[in-house]
Write a structure and sequence with these properties.
Elements (H helix, E strand, L loop, with lengths): L21 E5 L2 E4 L1 H12 L15 E2 L3 E2 L5 E5 L2 H15 L5 E5 H8 L22 H5 L4 E5 L10 H14 L3 E6 L13 H10 L1 E5 L13 H8 L52
Parallel strand pairs: 5-8, 5-9, 6-7, 7-8
Antiparallel strand pairs: 1-2, 3-4
Helix pairs in contact: 3-5
């Protein structure tokens, strides 16, 4: 006879969960079970980042002392794929309450010239495509914006102005931006740097150089909640400390069916976050 699965996360229920996805922490309070926390973290990180192997420790974030997610950076690394394990580590440690957006220099230029404007998208596609009416719509809200350079390969007179506007909007709101110079891009070769923008970035963005062999390792498990508690001291969303009366707890709506790859597994996240540093130096 098959073991009953949790209706919320699809995993084997753990002690105190009862197959509902939540564990009672007080008379009128409950919290998501560890399996549901992992599911939500995967959804938060997205399908690409959540599937890569991560490094344990990075010049971008090494708890409890180093956390550059609030600092404007120029990240210099050989390839974009080599950065993904570092992004997974840093963003997973920050938790689901920390918002981020990854964009490219080409996307900034496209929004700037109006090609992603709501009115410019065919009516049939407007509900299926993310639209932005301005650069501010694209970059203003997230806690961290990560800009990948090198996608825009041809000379475009609008690119430096659009990029500079995006940086200034972030700076005005005192929010961090990470500029990623990878795949052969730098101050001399990127299409978004002119003399004004290049000088501004050189003077206001800290350089972090990451040397990597573009591979993660699978040596030891990493328990996400330990690092989350050290780094993220903000009050979590209401759903994470839900005020759920006892008689209503059984009526909690199950979430949309998620990945079953962690079915029956314990919460040590060896299958989710995999370890060992592959980086050197910070300038």
């Amino acid at each position: 006879m098959s073991e009953e699965k949790c209706k919320t996360c699809g995993c084997t229920p753990i002690a105190g969960c009862g197959g509902k996805g939540f564990i009672r922490t007080g008379e009128n309070h409950c919290k998501p079970c560890p399996h549901l926390q992992v599911k939500r973290l995967r959804q938060h990180l997205g399908p690409i980042i959540s599937k890569v192997q991560h490094v344990k420790g990075s010049p971008l974030l090494t708890p409890p002392h180093t956390d550059l997610t609030g600092t404007n950076l120029r990240i210099q690394i050989r390839t974009w794929n080599g950065l993904l394990p570092h992004l997974k580590w840093a963003l997973a440690c920050k938790g689901v309450t920390f918002s981020f957006r990854i964009i490219t220099d080409e996307e900034i230029r496209t929004v700037f010239v109006g090609s992603r404007n709501y009115r410019s998208i065919p009516v049939k596609l407007r509900e299926k495509v993310q639209t932005y009416n301005s650069i501010a719509d694209l970059v203003e809200d997230p806690d961290l914006v990560i800009i990948q350079l090198g996608i825009l390969r041809y000379k475009n007179v609008a690119a430096p102005s659009a990029f500079y506007e995006a940086l200034r909007i972030r700076e005005r709101n005192a929010k961090a931006t990470w500029i990623v110079e990878c795949d052969g891009t730098d101050l001399d070769s990127s299409q978004v740097y002119d003399s004004t923008v290049g000088s501004h970035v050189e003077n206001n963005y800290e350089v972090v150089q990451i040397e990597t062999d573009d591979e993660g390792d699978d040596d030891e498990d990493f328990v996400f909640t330990d690092h989350e508690s050290e780094l993220d001291t903000r009050e979590p969303p209401a759903e994470y400390n839900a005020n759920v009366p006892e008689e209503e707890e059984s009526e909690l709506e199950p979430e949309e069916e998620g990945s079953q790859e962690d079915e029956g597994s314990e919460i040590n996240l060896g299958s989710f976050l995999k370890d060992k540093p592959k980086w050197k130096g910070r300038r």
